[in-house]
């Protein structure tokens, strides 16, 4: 892939696009990549884009894939049609006229229609050089996805084709599969959600170091949720049933997981599930992390899911959170609420990159549903905005919390 970085940089400059704009365009087109990954490709720190990413970049930048990876042609489209030869660059109307003349001439000469050229074989881009922790985390994740799909290693290898990959070596962390092959594995394992696919592929591309949520014991949808949460600059979350996990005490979290069911976090033990909740809370420590804008229903404060001391400690914790500069806590009143959305709990993430679109997350019964469609995300924003104008102010929130605390201590 000689000169790929230089040509990508040239195409970006000629079109006047930033890496963030290209990343946003590709993400909206259904191929989620980050600004950081575009930057790494542009500077030559990454040289292993998948064929899907190559084609999307070429389309976005209006160049051919061939030119992008080293051929001499710049513009895509007409130059790729072997029947047009040196006429590439003409307008679309002129190209149609030329095609018509060629067709008439061939008929006059009694020539048959030329056979379409054979498509080039899609060779896999070589695998990146992954460090041992990356190999181990990727292998662990792919093993979990295969088992969740109910496939044996032999069946997975057979589905991919002879000699495509040794599943056992990849899952054991002894071999790095090319990112294009990881994409095929995700297809085979039924992983369709774009943020989830990008979460796995970013590790396969060597774009990031593994984190605690990359452990195989954390379901991939939950790992993706945690990773997005950690990158967010603003988190908006609505919870009508329990205190949001980011604001729960350890004992309250234990009670909330018990009533919701251990399977909701995909863990084998209650201690492990509580450990996940506590691990994700580190980012909201005072003076660190994103702005958390949380809205809870007043019924959350009335609902008894544990003994009084647990609820009292949780109220104290909420009062402390409500005083933090990076936490904005509000309560939807029980009496005459102006608006109640037809939904369960949901979260919206906004990211520091200006061109990175927001993502919504509907916290469903068995797993979180990650939502990237702009219209659907905007609907959740509208719901949150309507809730926001009907809730308590910061000062009123403290009054409500202290009122419930006084009731509980009587």
TrEMBL record:
Sequence ranges assigned to domain HTH cro/C1-type in this UniProt record: 33-68
Protein name listed in UniProt: Transcriptional regulator with XRE-family HTH domain
Superkingdom, taxonomy of origin: Bacteria
Pfam families the UniProt entry points to: DUF5753 (PF19054), HTH_3 (PF01381), HTH_31 (PF13560)
InterPro entries: Cro/C1-type_HTH (IPR001387), DUF5753 (IPR043917), Lambda_DNA-bd_dom_sf (IPR010982), Rad_response_metalloprotease (IPR052345)
Organism: Nonomuraea muscovyensis
SUPFAM superfamilies (alphabetical): lambda repressor-like DNA-binding domains
Single GO MF annotation: DNA binding
